[in-house]
Amino acid sequence: MKLIIAIIKPFKLDPVREALSDIGVQGLTVTEVKGYGRQKGHTEVYRGAEYTVNMVPKLKLEIVVTDDLAPRVVETISAAAATGSIGDGKIFTLDVGRAVRIRTGETNETAL
To answer: Which pTM value belongs to this model?
Structure first.
C-alpha cells in the first residue's frame, strides 16, 4: 500500500477529486495548509497598499491506495492539478506498513 500526499492549489480540489473518483479512488483526506516553496510567497494589493504574503494557502490531500493503483493516482493528480504556473504543488509517495478499518477490524487492502 502507498500513502500519496499531494499539495495543490485550493481551486483545483474539485477537478482533482472528480478525476480520482473516475479512476476508482474511494476516499481521501483534505487539510487546509499554508507554506511556501521556491516561490517564497507572493505580493498582493489590499485597499491600495501592497504587502507580501509569506505563507501561501494550499490544500494537502492524503490518499492510501494499493501498490498497483499508486502510479495512476500520481499521474491523475498531476494532470488535474496542473495550471502550468509556479506554485502548482508537489506529490509525495510513501510506503504504508498497515491499515485497519476500525469498525470491522479489516486490515491492509481490504480496509481500504
So the answer is: 0.85
